[in-house]
Amino acid sequence: MTHYIQVEMVNRFGELARVVNLISGRGFNIEKLMINITEKPDISQAKVSLAGDENKIGNLVKQINRQVRVTEARILTETEIENDVFFNA
User: Fold this and answer.
1) What residue segments make up the domains of the chain, in order of their start?
2) Which CATH number fits domain 2-78: 3.30.70.260, 3.40.50.740, 3.30.930.10, 3.40.50.620?
3) Among 29, 31, 33, 75, which lies 20 to 30 A Cα-Cα from 82?
4) Distance separating alpha carbons of residues 89 and 87, to the nearest angstrom
């Protein structure tokens, strides 16, 4: 099943690579990835689409949240996914 997560992180050199390496290192294949800046110029937002078991995705999000420069990682709700142009393209 496809799951969608959102990760907000400090906008610093190498942070996206760190998060992507954590995801791929846990055996997940990223299907879609989009990066945006937020209202705060020092924070970037990544939206990721990946397939996997719900429990494993939950554990992955917990591991991402433990990263020092990650401000928030969470699984997106169905409503958020339906209203997002990126995931519906």
Assistant:
1) 2-78
2) 3.30.70.260
3) 29
4) 6
Residue range 28-77, pLDDT digits in tens:
999 999 999 899 989 999 999 999 999 999 999 999 999 999 999 999 98
pTM: 0.89
Report which of 5, 6, 10, 4 is spatially closest to residue 70, judged by C-alpha positions.
10
The pLDDT, as a whole number, for residue 87 is 67
Closest CA to 23 of 4, 50, 3, 43: 50
3-class DSSP state for residue 13?
coil
